[in-house]
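stuck on whats below:

***
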Amino acid sequence: MDVAWLVVALAGAGLVAGLLAGLFGIGGGAILVPVFYQVFGLIGIDEAIRMHLSVGTSLAIIVPTSIRSFLSHKAKGAVDMELLRTYIIAVPTGVLLATLVFASISSEGLRIVFAAIAVLVGIRLVVNRSNWQLGDELPKGIKRFGVGALIGFLSTLMGIGGGVLNNTFMTLFNRPIHQAVATSSGVGVLISVPGFVGSIWAGWGAEGLPFLSTGYVNWLAVALIIPVTLLVAPVGVKIAHKLEKRQLEIGFGIFMFIVAGRFILSVLQG
């Protein structure tokens, strides 16, 4: 594999991911994983490990960004620390279970999981209604533990920081979106740190990994993507401020449908 082409392709991925992250206001794996999947395909990464590598590398990138985001939100008092404390065991439990599945699940299985969640998220964004609520108070006890574990489990298999799922959970129970976003930054830490370590373990010794990879984490991608996305994201933000909130919701919903369609098509084509 030509390392120069890998660098060029990953830099291009950073440009796309940064622009979309700034435009849609979400910078995690919901954007990075499908972009990585395309780029790793262009440079000839085997289909059998391409999705695993995309998920693991995405989780590695989310580690520093989620920690920085969480500390910033916490300093402003926007994080629901009570909810986050109840997640401390629940979310990593889900991540641990997902890591065990991640080590054995096929590439097709990972793509189906991502596509299914992407469709559900897309539907909620495109057909969103302000009166879509399940209650006024968040569930407690074993129910909350179960939700936290599920968020950790699905987010790890998707390579995302949990923001999409936790935001949905909190807003469905009448929590302000700003509090949901702030709290989700802490959820991202609980998911990405053990998920990143698990990705290295799950892919240890795997064949066909690209240059500078440890397990299912490609360090070249990590080193290139973070600065490039930070550089380009403000451009997407400027575009976003020229659009209405509803337009952004529909735009991101359509993006999720396109990603889901791409993954489903790749599975059907074998």
User: Anything to note?
Assistant: The chain has a mean pLDDT of 86. The two ends are 24 Å apart (CA to CA). The beta strands are 213-214, 217-218.
